Amino acid sequence: MKALAALACGLLFGAGLIISDMANPARVLAFLDIFGAWDPSLALVMAAGLVPSTLAYRWHLRRQAPVLEDRAQVPSGGRIDAPLVIGAALFGIGWGLVGLCPGPAVAALVTGRWPFVVFVLAMLGGMALFRLFHARR
Known about the structure:
The chain crosses the membrane at residues 40-59, 80-100, 112-133. This is YeeE/YedE family protein. The structure is a single chain. α1 crosses α5 (102-108) and α2 (25-32) packs across α4 (82-98). The chain is globular, with a radius of gyration of 17 Å. By secondary structure, the protein is mostly helical. It has helices at 2-19, 25-32, 41-62, 82-98, 102-108, 114-136. It has one domain. The protein contains six helices and no strands.
């Protein structure tokens, strides 16, 4: 049941990215171009996402446990450390350079265009390298 719920959520998220055109790197790069031809649509999509997110979080607070788990896995407000800052910087640099982050890149795979395939393969390679080096520490 958990796998089916995860698949449904992933498909819904991916469909939303495709329908809102947020899997289009040009749209994201236009959002980041604040001194040029700025496109505010990404900000509107993010703002619209706050409504269901807020409602779901408020619903979560009233429940004893999640629907498909024994307990919720909510961040407990950890500290800001070097790995977090470095990871956030790498994410932001990559996003700003190519206009893609993991969710939209995976959703864009349905187009079959090679730049998305290359991005996802590079992303998976980066994840594998992280696991390799993290396992050694």
